Amino acid sequence: MVTPGFPRKTLDPDGSPVWIAGLASQDPNHSLHVAQNIEPRQALEALGVDAGSIRPCVLPDSKPNPYTSLPSAAFADDTGDAATLLAGRIGQWTFVYDDLGYTFDGTAEILSRGGRTAMTTVYTINGHAGLYYAVDGEEVEEVVIEGLRLEERLPGMPAELAAAFESAGIADWEDLEPGEVDSLIGMRVACALAGVIVTLDDIRGIPLLMAQRNAGD
User: Fold this and answer.
1) pTM higher than the cut 0.85
2) What is the pLDDT at residue 4?
3) HEC profile for the chain?
4) How confident is residue 77, by pLDDT bands cut at 50, 70 and 90?
């Protein structure tokens, strides 16, 4: 599919950014963070990972099974119930992908401290989705994707967030009602905001860090 801000090769047929779909396990429950002017290691530490687990990451060629994400497969150790977080930087923006969605509550505020802009989006295995946009440590916008009507919300959004929504577009799903958005839009908005409109090969071509985080950390 194609949206205003995404060339065809950067989205899969369902409307997921191809690099996210390439990283994710089957039926994912995951989150994505993007933050401006912060280094990947600093972002991982801010998200509460075990600092000793941070290491360079070389993504494997494929996933060992449908239930393992590509970043998790990159760990030689058994990750158990821990989430694997993958971080990298493209231009002024750092992204952190959390394959189990353990990091989402309050993380945009944390990553935006010090005058930065940050956004977190989460997608659950049940199709529930939302996003959080923060500036300088304060949440500016929370958007629940279910029931979202863009014509009502866009006029009140900060300009760069509204522009990211417009770039993200709406997936061409047959079961969507007129004016309804698809549940994958949050991932596209985060990518549009940060300019992470790339392929999985592009992600493989930049320095990456990975780390583990337990649910209770």
Assistant:
1) yes
2) 79
3) CCECCECHHHECCCCCEHHHHHHCCCCCCEEEEEEECCCHHHHHHHCCCCHHHCEECCCCCCCCCCCCCHHHHHCCCCCCCCEEEEEEEECCEEEEEECCCCCCCCHHHHHHCCCCEEEEEEECCCCCEEEEEEECCEEEEEEECCCCEHHHHHHHCCHHHHHHHHHHCCCCCCCCCCCECCCCHHHHHHHHHHCCCCCHHHHHCCCEEEEEECCCC
4) low
